[in-house]
Amino acid sequence: MTVYLDNAATTRVCPQAAQAALAVMTEGWGNPSSGYKPGQAAAARLREDRAAVSDALGCEPEELYFISCGTEGDNWSVRAAAEYGRRRGRHIVTSAIEHSAVLEQMKVLEAQGCEVTRLMPDRSGHISSGALEAALRKDTVLVSLMLVNNELGTLQPVEEAARAIRRTGCPALLHTDAVQAFLKVPFRPRDLGVDLLTISGHKIGAPKGIGAQYIRRGLHLPPLLMGGGQEAGQRPGTEATAQIAAFAAACRSWEVSWPDRISEIKKYALESLSAVPGLEIISPGDAPHICAVSLPGYPSEMLVRDLSDRGIYVSAGSACHRGKPSHVFATLGLPKRTLMGVLRVSFSPENTRADVDALTAGLLHITRTRVAMR
Description:
alpha/beta, three-stranded antiparallel β-sheet, 13 helices, 12 strands, globular
């Protein structure tokens, strides 16, 4: 039995994406920058695939740049925005529950003389739009706020942040890490009011190693790399055409009904897991696919291991922590026993009620056979 419930970490590659990648690797393998026929065919396919991803995101193809992953996009956005605005100010606003790709880059910028305000969430894992507006200053050059938190599933006030930036007249660019939001919650970059937005393919059935960066039309940021001019000179390097084709295929195959399907499974899970003695709901999640629970007194690492032995796969938080305690859950002020027993459960369209039943049965077995740590 295999029950995979860690889809916020990565998703299974969908057949359409795998087939598209194979076709490009074996048949359409030309370099898109070459002037002869195989290269021209690859360039034409690249234009089609860029249009498919930009259409799924809700932006113009010229506003979308292919990158390797969400971490790359977050790093690029934060670093480039700070450099872009350095003559106007050195103040940056973010939250304490951002992905480490944002927070680690903030540390680098602080070492270079920037001042970073990190907003704290409330107990439910939400950032206050009022606190965000109060943090804005005349020298604020960047606000970076994720759209959906990757460990709590909570929606953050990105659209409200855009309005606050306009209302206060500060010169800040607005970046959002939308990796967990893409195709799960409805949004378009222009409607959000963002200048920069990052997504990643392996959260929606594409392979690892491909993502995309939205840069608002008319915004000319320092490029990520220097090289041959690919991606309009913003992210040069020969395009990863196979991964891009797979990303586009995953976007095309995503069904608009899937978020509702996922949400129903998560709702069933939250109801089913209430049968586990002592289990606490840390965050039901605003997004359809992520929730966080805790079994106080049972260490997360032990729970993950015991469930894994039964073929049930969940996590203790973001895969990027690599076994380290989650900074996201630590900000919530949870009791120590609760904090040490946290699990993140995340769903895909493939999950069923039987998967949820297996998880519930696994946790019930653990509570009956393991002695909780006091």
